[in-house]
Structure formats: structure tokens, C-alpha cells
Amino acid sequence: MTVTTITPGPAGTATATSPVRSDVRTRELIAIIRETSDPYERSRCLDEAARIHMPLARSLAHRYGGRGLDRDDLEQVAYLALLKAISRFDLSKETEFGAYATPTITGELRRHFRDHGWLVRPPRALQERRQLVTQTRDRLEQTLGHAPDSTELATFLGLTDALVREAQVAASNLRPASLDATTADGDRPALELVHTASDPALDEGIVVRTAIGRLPARDQQLITLRFDDDLTQAEIASRMGLSAMQVSRLLRRALEELRGYLATEGVAAA
Q: In what residue span(s) does the RNA polymerase sigma-70 region domain sit (predicted)?
């Protein structure tokens, strides 16, 4: 990933020492940034405003650590989002800057995680095989005139069909479940079904997609619509010809069954 480098100050440092003074100073700096015609002055004020709130950005970035993404990348995403918040902050509102910046930074982190994260992080060898299978599939599709199946890929690569299928399952995990999606009872994020990717149990292989594949077809569809397609329970009910209450009950049951499958694979439920 390539991002603009922003050099943070020492952890925990800020130009002002209290939230009130920080907010007052931030407003002063933003006003100068928008009024001055001096590029040097604008850059100096922007740098100071960013440094005041870098501890906040760093703290928010670290919440997403341990899930297979590089911490430095996460911090850079957070710092860039902080700059965006500075440029968009409405000085006419009484909202404190930190309260405004937090959802802006969190939103950018979630978007980055959706685009670059794994639902679960497989071993490095499996990641490399996934990349090889994906690249080979694209080349063979042009040569054969159709999308190659796992047998054709296995033959071309000299791998077993099982190894190719495992790599294809890994590819499906490049699209993570929504960080905002909650379980059917609305109490916990869906990703709390399992520990974060720093849990060694998750490094033993791809387990979540496999577990979902063991559920009945209707339960698989429910989970896909809710967590992959990010539909509401009402939207799912309309699409599947069910009531919202039925969807809630079926989702709750499916998630409990999924937790049971994960437990048998050595992945503890949250």
C-alpha cells in the first residue's frame, strides 16, 4: 500500500495540555489556515493542528491492530483522515473538534479495513498460493476462453485439487465482514464471533468460510445477505418472503450454530 507519509510527533504529545485549550487552539489554527494567503503559515498551522490531535488518530488506528494489517499503514490512514477532518470542520458549530474528527477517522479506517483486510488471516504459504491461483486463473481464462475450474487449475499448476480449492476459499476471505454489522440480537459486532486475527487459532487455516459452508443453504443465504451484502433485516425479509421477526430468529439460530462449528475447529466464540 502506498500512502502519503506524515511524520507523527512523539506518542501522547500535543501542543495544548487540556481538551478545552486544545479545542480553542485548534479552532484558532483552522481559522488561520482558511484566512491566510501565506503558504508557509498555512502549512505551519496545519502541522500544529494535526500534531495536537495525532494521539487521538493513533489511538483509533490501534483499535484495528492485530487483524492482519500493518500498524504503520493504519496510522497513516488515520492521520490522512485527521487532515480531512481539519479541512472540513465547520467553525460555526459548537461541536468540539475531537468529537467531530473521531467518526471521520473511524470511517476511513473501516473503509481501509474493508478494502484491504482479511476476514481471517491465513498462513503466509496459503496467501502466496492464493495469489498464484488467482493470477493463473486470469491467464488461463484468456487462453481457454472460459473460467478454469479447480481441476484445470490444479493440472496446470501441478497441485492437488484440494490445495487449489483451499486457495480459492482464502481468496473469498479478502472481502471481510462489515465491521459495523452486528449479530442478530444487535448486541455485538459480527467479527466478535471469533477473536481477532492475532489469535493463533486463526492462523491454522481458513475456518470461518468453511464453517459457513456447513450451514443449511437458507442460513448461508441469510448470513451472506446480512454481513456480505449489508442488508437490514427488513430488506432480507422482503427479499426472502419472510417476516422481520422470522429473519431475526433464523439469524440468531444460524449464528449460534456457526459458533458451535467454530468451537469444534478450535476457534472460541467471543
A: 53-118, 128-186, 211-259
